[in-house]
């Protein structure tokens, strides 16, 4: 009996110790954001700010180059919302087509779609840039947002898996009742695949919020920058005097991500476990 | 007549539903892939028309550009050290967490957390500072009796920063391993215990073989993702890939050739070499998989 208790305690010690090591960097960032800039590295070994100050958040929020941080957050939200709506709705449409409709080439195009998942983005990077510059889309959010409306293979795959778990009798019953394919999709399938659409939305939110490459290539005016580019500006202007502000705004940029994570943990864990979606 | 019309209609309906993907695939993938292949045989600076140079870009890459070889080397170290370490940690922690306890949810969340925030600029900035001269990593080294390392002065040390950042994000692979472990029927372990198998035997004879399909999947997806790593290298080296190209990952070098030096032809040639490397590695993993991946159906 004592041996079992000891094993139990050792297991918790190991798991909790590992978990603490994993989050330590984040805790360190968080606590450092309440330290005076010049003390962050002098007292790097201590997690407790002394004195505890809020100034970093005030200076950080004032922003950089005359733009306050709220503007960057708004820009990020615009990108996230527009791209997520497009990606989730178009992916649902395509997923329904692949999962439920019989047509020649269904299997072929599905295989093509799965292959694009393995295509390194570097291959399309340059021609896409040329294409968008020919279209006159540079320095706008169009190159970042518009492609989302053409379906995202990861989300399509996620939704196909989900649709396949819905009994086909439902479709047949609806078809007998004279329901067209689009009505069938919109009235019956969409409400049923809401959980998969929610999971896709969460991942879309993460990827768009954290995206740096798109904004780096296509946005030139700081007034259009999302949070990721704003942080890069802080880094470019890095001096001892603004470490605190940079840390504070890094924390601010992580808060939405963490909130979504803690609210929707179950969907995220299921999404990854069933499809191998990378978080 | 109406039969044929109905058949046509159902074909059209199918294509109508997948049309967003088809259009997107043609415009944003197929056409760019073809264009990239063409551009790799040209000299193109975005401002004047591309001029055909044949294999010159590829020749320069292989014989006239030491930076290309350095970035390839750095990327190979990053991938072939980082991915195995990441998968090993993922598997070890998944095994640790594969038991019944009320605390599992909490532990799983905490171990997974870095994966969710790891791709952000904020975390790369944090990582830079952890490895600062007076940063936490050096303090920890001092604590156990080692001397401080100047992480930003040495190419290999700087690359180690990127590798540890990638290993830290083992959470998504861990979740996939956990799902794989849950799928192993407990009856197998019971039967093995009855037959007198000890824990290592059970691990190597039951757990590992049944996990090999998941390991295969994780290896391929993580390797491809590792070849595409961009943000950490860009942020940690402030866009330069330094010191001495130590953090010049392939995608960062390609990005610099294309969008700092406007060498679109060269960048396209680099992209095709990368595509071939990734395709070759994937094919290799698949080809060897019949020797180490265990498929249950074969045994039935």
Main interface: chain pair and counts: A-B, 95 and 94 residues
Q: Strand share of the residues of chain A?
A: under 5%
Mean pLDDT of chain B: 91
Q: How would you spell out the order of helices and strands of chain A?
A: HHHHHHHHHHHHHH
The number of strands of chain B is 2
Please sum up the structure shown.
With 279 residues, chain A is mainly α. In chain A, 70% of the residues lie in helices and 0% in strands. Chain A folds into 2 domains: 2-61, no CATH class; 64-275, MetI-like (MetI-like fold).
Task: Write out key terms for the chains shown.
heterodimer, A: mainly alpha, MetI-like fold, 2 domains, B: 300 residues, mainly alpha, two-stranded antiparallel sheet, 14 helices, globular
Secondary-structure blueprint:
The complex is a heterodimer of chains A (279) and B (300).
Chain A (H helix, E strand, L loop, with lengths): L1 H31 L22 H8 L6 H32 L5 H11 L5 H13 L7 H4 L7 H12 L4 H8 L4 H12 L1 H17 L2 H6 L8 H10 L6 H21 L1 H11 L4
Chain B lengths: L1 H38 L2 E2 L7 E2 L3 H9 L1 H32 L6 H14 L3 H10 L5 H8 L11 H14 L2 H12 L3 H9 L4 H29 L3 H6 L13 H10 L4 H29 L3 H4 L1
What does this structure look like?
The complex is a heterodimer of chains A (279) and B (300). Chain A has 279 residues and is mostly helical. Chain A folds into 2 domains: 2-61, no CATH class; 64-275, MetI-like fold (Orthogonal Bundle), CATH 1.10.3720.10. Chain A has 14 helices and no strands. Chain B is mainly alpha-helical. Chain B has helices at residues 2-39, 56-64, 66-97, 104-117, 121-130, 136-143, 155-168, 171-182, 186-194, 199-227, 231-236, 250-259, 264-292, 296-299, and strands at 42-43, 51-52. The longest helix of chain B is centred in the first third of the chain and has 38 residues, at 2-39. In chain B, strand 1 (42-43) and strand 2 form a beta hairpin. The chains are: A mainly alpha (279), B mainly alpha (300). At the A-B interface, helix 1, helix 3, helix 4, helix 5 and helix 10 of A face helix 1, helix 3, helix 4, helix 5 and helix 8 of B.
